[in-house]
Specification:
The chain is mostly helical. It has helices at 10-21, 25-31, 35-45, 52-72, 83-94, 100-111, 117-124, 132-145, 147-154, 158-171. 66% of the residues lie in helices and 0% in strands. The chain is elongated and about 80 Å long.
Length: 181
């Protein structure tokens, strides 16, 4: 007698998502709220080295993707950004090509049908500036142009530092790697 394997029950899948992908119980519950959402997540997270990529996929599915699906009154199976395309976007964040902030613009363009993450980044020139020399030049210019904020920072005012970082980000239209700045 041959019996078909029992499908994985939502509770078991939730527990597996917590263990396998190091997700919070809340995120795992959100992703297993429907079989289609769980399948989408697993396709997006497939083959992820380490848990960071899987967590990023989960965050994007629960956040931006769910919001856009709700706005458009679409089910996840009808998403204009498929799991592989979402993974492409997440990989560009993980490898430092783009920042999380720029990724939102890339996602919007992908949703609008302007191509995959790589195509949108190239077409719009959104690649994050991670070249140390280039960032150093920008930071030097910001420091030279803001002597009062530099003096405030040196006298212990932490907010002055954030302001200087903000100036550098503004000078690069948000494209500089914020950690490097």
């Amino acid at each position: 007698e041959v019996r078909a394997a029992m499908p994985e029950l939502p509770r078991a899948k939730r527990e597996r998502f917590v263990t396998q992908y190091a997700l919070t119980p809340h995120d795992a519950a959100m992703l297993t709220s429907s079989r289609e959402t769980a399948d989408y997540f697993e396709q997006a997270a497939q083959g992820a080295a380490g848990t960071q990529t899987a967590k990023l996929c989960a965050n994007w599915i629960i956040g931006s993707l769910s919001a856009r699906l709700n706005e458009s009154d679409l089910e996840i199976v009808a998403s204009k950004v498929g799991p592989a395309a979402l993974r492409g976007l997440v990989d560009r964040i993980a490898d430092g090509t783009i920042s999380g902030k720029i990724a939102k613009d890339v996602f919007d363009a992908m949703w609008a049908g302007e191509g995959d993450a790589g195509q949108v980044i190239a077409a719009k020139g959104l690649e994050q500036i991670s070249d140390g020399g280039e960032i150093e030049k920008i930071v030097d210019q910001v420091i030279a142009a803001n002597p009062q904020q530099v003096a405030d920072y040196r006298s212990g005012k932490e907010k002055a530092f954030n302001s200087l970082v903000g100036q550098a980000m503004k000078a690069t239209k948000g494209k500089a790697n914020p950690q490097q700045v």
